[in-house]
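DM between two lab members

TW: hey, do you still have the NADH-quinone oxidoreductase subunit H entry open?
JB: yeah, one sec
JB: this one, 443 aa:
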Amino acid sequence: MLPATVQTPAAEALAGDPLWVVIVKAVLILVFLLTSVLFAVWFERRVIGRLQERPGPNRLGPFGLLQSVSDAMKLLFKEDITVRASEKILYIAAPMISVFCALLIFAVIPFGPDTRIYGTDFSTPLQLTDFPVAVLFILACAALGVYGIVLGGWASGSTYPLMGAIRSTAQVISYELAMGLSLVTVFMLSGTMSTSGIVDAQADRWWVWPLFPAFILYVISMVGETNRLPFDLPEAEGELVAGFMTEYSSMKFAWFFLAEYMNMINVSAVASTLFLGGWRAPWPASWPGYEFLNTGIFPPLWLILKIWLLMFVFVWIRGSVLRFRYDQFMKFGWKILIPVGLGWTVFFAVGRATFEHFGRDLNVYDAVAGLIAILLVVAVWSFVSDAKEKSEAEVDPDAEPEVLDAFAGGYPVPPMPHQVLPPSPRSGRTVDAHAGTREEDSE
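TW: and the structure you got?
JB:
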């Protein structure tokens, strides 16, 4: 792996950008994100409408494209209510923190190679900035973004927002660990943590193939990281009214809404950059005569196309999967995702070191490592499932069910299928009362 002080060619080129170029890039990124959020709201409602066999928004503008503008104007002109019991400063600052952290991530996402600006002799990479630990910067911004949710829930001075904020804290800790583990093998294979360096390392093949288990792990973690179904426990409307956003209205609510959709676009862009070749075209672009697909206007278009393919995955999951219970959610993060991430990291690192020690071709190992890991996971899963079914089959159906003390550990738990609750004294009193009532009626 390269030492952290080594500058990538893109970082050296970006260091020479004049101030006006930096400002133009920042404004373009801001416009791109805001426009993408408006389109994402329409896109999600339209796709879910198709999944549920209904038209979706189709009244305002062609194909309902102006529906998002209408929603934004509605939030802008709604009454802005400030809760009297809230911590005023933090209550107002919380949604701003979420939006600000969401805006920072795209600063290190490369949209294309070194490109000449039209009408001038000046050329610059299509990226705002880059440095040797850019991916760690992305993880830090994603972690700081949750402070907006936590502070918003706590500062609201209400019970349901506070519960949503606490859930969000546990969620970020759980799923950011799995997300970090999924990126370790990307750093191993690329030899750098720079986003432009990782894209350059995928010139001959995308990392999604040799690192397919890491890609699946990242996709699951990014859904949990952005509080989207089936992991939207911090704002579960069936349990917590609207979660951490319950006491927010008008534009402060819209800022949280904006941050959520920006984070969806952000994690999709990171997945495209780290696993799907970033701005690079598919494999024909590496063949002689097809190099033009990685030049000009094509690189940004390839990246945007990959982002929206992953955005479709977000919407598809929301329209297909039910929300988890909170215990299922935490168990999935700690007992499945993190052990799988650790196992994949060890498997990949030890395998590459062994191949290198015996002088074998590392490209061969990279080509088959992902497939072998998937087969191992399937085999272990099948073994565990068979063992569980066997243990359940061994339960004697004629045996007396075990009486469960639901409050033995100090926390009420429901009985399992082979357990029963002890008879309630209240039920006995109820039976006696009904019997006495019937006797009085007969007299």
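TW: got it. The first strand starts at residue 112 and ends at 116. The chain has one domain: 9-282+292-387.
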